[in-house]
Amino acid sequence: MLSTDNTSSFVSAPLRPRIGITHGDTNGVGYEIIFKCFDEPQMLELCTPVIYGSAKVATYHKKSFENTAVFNLVANADEAIEGQINLVNCIAEEVKVEFGRATKESGDAARRALETAVEDYKAGRIDAIVTAPINKSAIHGEQFPWSGHTEYFGVRFDAEPLMILCNDLMRVALVTTHLPIRDVSSAITPATVEAKIRLLHKALHTDFLLPAPRIAVLGLNPHCGDAGVAGTEETEAILPAIDKLRAEGIAVFGPFAADGFFGTAAYRDFDAVLAMYHDQGLAPLKALSMDGVNVTCGLPVVRTSPDHGTAYDIAGQDKADATSMRSAIYTAIDICRNRRSDEQAHVDPLPKLFQDRREETDRPRRPLRETMP
């Protein structure tokens, strides 16, 4: 297992990370997409999966779709066997499965699996956590007062989380996440925008190994406020943060009007985009590709998830597509290795004798334009 100790044992760490996978809402497609991922034998060559859930519920779900995967029941993640699908039974009692319904029972089962996975990560038993979809209304309550996974992980790890949605076309990060629209404007401050840009810049370095990333920042208002006619957040909060960080040498640009930015495919000029609120960034991303991955950066834990919900409408019907879940597992593996490589690069580094250049990737790029529509 990869070390979670910052003092670094990366030299002796094996290449096959131990990936914790929570089962999500038990009335959704969580188990279906998890087991379908491991229909491909090579997945077990890349990681050792540890599912956090219920053996009884897993067995019930498997009967609803064609799948030959067999899981190995373990008492805890320390007993996980490489080359097998392992399952930690977090819920001993019966859990009633009602496909397609949001129930308190399904939400509580999701919460208990999530809490066990977090405790195992903190104990050093797993290297990353991949979360299957939850239903927020089902899980929300006295024991889970947060608006989603991202906020939960931020509190549990006492750090500021950054939500980044990735697909083959772009990476989109958010200043505000699961916040009502009426509250977004007051949350856009120079300090908040600056903090999110810094988190994004660091994540692009450590989690994606981009040595000189370029970041685009979107405005909040139509036409970026039209010089104050349609709002002042751009001039009072967003632009000051951009100017400050550019003066420090961070390649950050904007603010750009969101409609023209996505309409002209300007995202191809950048390594990541910072949107002000949830739908501003994620609606165009999902319109272009639904096979995205949700990555929570800014935390010591590596956490990813598929970019879709519980899919109640098709739960239990053998119709769920595991592509996004598979991509979430791949991404968790990549980030584990990238963080280890970044850590290794900073141990007794050689004196810097050259100027870093931006890493080239397979993503098509165009010359950067200072002026965007």
Quick overview:
This protein has 373 residues and is α/β, with parallel strands linked by helices. The protein contains twelve helices and twelve strands.
Q: Which descriptors apply to this entry?
A:
alpha/beta, disordered C terminus, 12-stranded mixed sheet, 35% helix, 12 strands, 373 residues, 12 helices
Structure characterization notes:
- The protein is α/β, with parallel strands linked by helices.
- It is 35% helix and 16% strand.
- It contains 12 helices and 12 strands.
- The protein has a 12-stranded mixed beta sheet, with helices on both faces.
- β8, α9 and β9 (251-256) form a beta-alpha-beta unit.
- The longest helix is centred in the last third of the chain and has 23 residues, at 323-345.
- The model is unreliable at 1-13 and 364-373 (pLDDT under 50).
Shape, principal axes of CA atoms? globular
Beta-strand content: 15-25%
Portion in helices: 25-40%
Strand order of the largest sheet: 3-4-2-1-5-12-11-6-7-10-8-9
- Give start-end ranges of low-pLDDT stretches: 1-13, 364-373
Structural class: alpha/beta
Question: Distance between termini?
Answer: 48 Å
Radius of gyration over alpha carbons?
A: 21 Å
Arithmetic mean of pLDDT: 89
- How many β-strands, per DSSP? 12
Count of helices? 12
Helix and strand pattern:
EHHEHEEHEHHEEHHEHEHEHEEH
User: What profile does the largest beta sheet have?
Assistant: 12 strands, mixed
